[in-house]
Amino acid sequence: MNLNEIQAELRDQHLDGWLFFDHHRRDPLAYRVLGLGPELDPTRRWFYLIPASGEPRGLVHKIEPAVLDAVPGDKAKYSSWSGLLQGLGKLLTGCGRIAMQYSPQCVIPYVSLVDAGTLEQVRNLGIEVASSADLIQQFEARWDEAKLASHMEAGRRVDSIRREAFELVSDRMHSGSSISEWKVKQFILSRFAAEGLVTDHGPIVGVNENAANPHYEPTSASSRPLRTGDLLLIDMWAKLAQPHSVYYDITWTGFCGAQAPPEVERVFRIVCEARDRAIRRVQSAIQEGEPLRGFEVDDAARSYIREQGFPDAFVHRTGHSIGEEVHGAGANMDNLETHDERRIIPWTCFSIEPGIYLNAFGIRSEVNVFVDVDKAVVTGEIQDSLVLI
User: Fold this and answer.
1) Does 91 lie in the same domain as 149?
2) pTM (2 d.p.)
3) Which residues pair with 376 in a beta bridge?
């Protein structure tokens, strides 16, 4: 936690403070911003206020008085519900407008972590609560050199495993052996483990109409075999099995045959162009120092897909923030599921992954884009043609 930087940003945003609250580790953002360790497992509510000026201060339960020992400032103690309310009032003395992990109308679910009852308690004290979304971008979503290095190394390993997965399918089909979505998934997971990678779930391995379900995952009981003439989509994400590493997340598509049908090829080309238009929109804005917001990147990809005659076939946002969680807390490339007005800032990373999903098949192409101070780069390989299996 860089207290001076946080307080300077609070003053810039005309906030009197940033109030953190947690109960049973409901808010992982609070732990990462404050630098609280994974060993903490609080069973009682705690509050921690970083004021725009002056010393931070906290409120902890008497049976867990050490929960905030790792952060500076005095910590008052409570045990009863009335003591909590009194302590919260004292904690916020002098504050008129504060930030919390809250998003009006839950527009940004990744930040909207404080429950309605706790917001009521704070507002009943006559205090205005603003969203911490922009603060989270600054102090949680930004990477450092170590995180960037972990992402790049994860990318090298994931890209290699992706190639191996398509080669496995090719080898099995050419030898006449059976191969299914489930077996490909299990192969990828086994290679992740062997290469020191971890993932929270997935990967997505979808054939034909299953590829048209953006969040499809095969199971042992509901897995399709791969046959000649099938389309295969693989969406895989992983990070190094090390503390504070960040994810790498990609989607590639292949066709089981010497040449894909014209409709499949056409859809693939449209998706790739939509992806590339979004990439170019980001790169141009960063190079020219132009402020760029998440919804504008979504518009760059979505407008092209719409122009090509698929206005209702692109059913999710263009991209998501990437961090220690595969869906991070920074700006999303989104003007569909939400209208994300957060600015894209240096040292953040996000996916660009447009898709077109039809009845018979779906195609998505996903890359990761890292934004530096004066440039934006795709951090791994870019698929420019269907993998012919």
Assistant:
1) no
2) 0.92
3) 371
